[in-house]
Amino acid sequence: MKHSSKLASSFRIVGLAVALVSALPTFVAADDIISQIVARCPAQPRTYAQVTDYLRQLSGASSRVKLQVIGYSHRRRPLLLVTVTDPDSPAAQKMRLFIIARQHGNEPAGTTATLGLVEHFAHAPSALEQAVLKHLEIIAVPVANPDGAVAHQRRNAAGVDLNRDWQQASQPETQALQAAVYAYQPHAIMDLHELPAHSSRASYQQNFVETIGTNGQLPAPLSAYTGAISKNISLWMTRYSYGLNVFYDYPGDSLKLCHRYLGLYQGFPTFLCEVKPGAGRSLRYRAGFHILAAIVVANYLIHNPAAPRPAGPRVMQVAEAADKQTPVRQRLPQPVATGGPGQVQPITVALQTEPTTDSDGNQRMQIMTQVDGGSDFAFVTIAAGGVTRVLTNQRLYHYSLDLNMLPPGECPIVARAHDTSGRMVATQQLTLTVPTAGGTLGR
């Protein structure tokens, strides 16, 4: 199916696809879709009751919005799923983006962002939104943990962390979410969260996205798809002044978490989005992070419609029959190549003098890079042991490497600088000698 030139040109105006735009809209520009959606977000979180009332109002006021109950929490609160799309366009031509928000009841930014997206596309009258919804269906569960949201607590009413229950699926909330994902067979899944305001974990010091990495054990088309999208997210986060690290998942990582279970095990392109709260980071700031990430993912889906599509949505009642042992699907396309390297820029890589022990008892080594880049420099990727561990737009471009992830022996550390088109423009490598137990670190 070919998209109309009108749709492509509409997206160029808003500037959502890095490969399609020539100028960046500012965050406050009147025609900027991100600022429009953020402006719809309240300054304070809605209660669960307010969320349900609001969704019912939206579904009653717009033919684009459909609301359904996909299950119930421990306390018998409805688990609501909302969709927004053009009801008159064929389902076969649409890409499906599935958003899960607020698995942790005390993390309201994902709910706020999801409602902002749904409201915007439900009512926005412009030709842009109308064109988008002919080729996109947003499927969202704004409050995945109703009992936790009401109690303002991380866990559900049974005391279970839902984002550690995906492999076991012991809870009614997790079971309902899995059934909905299997029913809709989305082309991409986003799981929206908030980080602790204060944490000793190195990976928790900044906003991050976590997605499927690239190695020989993973389907190359799937890894290429998530890799291309994560680069686009990083580029646009940089342009909107959001700090971001991107971390990658590999076989052997715990499948208890939603994005890993659905990504590494079930083969869906998945993106865990974690935004950092704290001083100066209002609810709207945090919701904006999620909104921008969702728009970038949606835009990539729309402009890559050649992906082989799974069967259309099944009736929800038969979703329980879906085989949880389904092997990883190899149904996604390679992204379009961005071209060869551009102008070379100097990059240096160094290691801290000695490893440190983190709060979990893991031995870590700081990998520190420095880039003498110009205005076209965008981000650094750092690979260890042959696989990319992080993509970061944070100045100093450091990464805390868990040495327990690496086998003993020589381990190549490779840093690569990329420009604003995502192309690699410089690289440097050093070798780290990982010791056996009780041995001495070398480099």
Lay out the secondary structure.
Elements: H1 5-14, H2 33-40, H3 48-61, E1 65-72, E2 78-84, E3 95-101, H4 109-123, H5 127-133, E4 136-141, H6 146-151, H7 172-184, E5 188-194, E6 208-212, H8 220-239, E7 245-249, H9 258-265, E8 270-275, H10 283-302, E9 347-351, E10 356-357, E11 363-371, E12 377-384, E13 387-392, E14 398-402, E15 409-419, E16 424-434
Parallel strand pairs: 3-4, 3-5, 5-8, 6-7
Antiparallel strand pairs: 1-2, 2-4, 6-8, 7-13, 9-11, 10-11, 11-14, 12-13, 12-15, 15-16
Describe it for me?
With 443 residues, the chain is α+β, with helices and mostly antiparallel strands. It has two domains: 5-321, Zn peptidases (Aminopeptidase), CATH 3.40.630.10; 347-434, Sandwich (Immunoglobulin-like), CATH 2.60.40. The protein has ten helices and 16 strands. The protein has helices at residues 5-14, 33-40, 48-61, 109-123, 127-133, 146-151, 172-184, 220-239, 258-265, 283-302, and strands spanning 65-72, 78-84, 95-101, 136-141, 188-194, 208-212, 245-249, 270-275, 347-351, 356-357, 363-371, 377-384, 387-392, 398-402, 409-419, 424-434. A twelve-stranded mixed sheet has the order 1-2-4-3-5-8-6-7-13-12-15-16, sandwiched between helices. Strands 9, 10, 11 and 14 form a four-stranded antiparallel sheet that branches. Strand 6 (208-212), helix 8 and strand 7 form a beta-alpha-beta unit. Helix 1 crosses helix 5 (127-133), helix 4 packs across helix 10 (283-302) and helix 8 (220-239) crosses helix 10. The longest helix has 20 residues, at 220-239. It starts with a helix and ends in a 9-residue tail after the last strand.
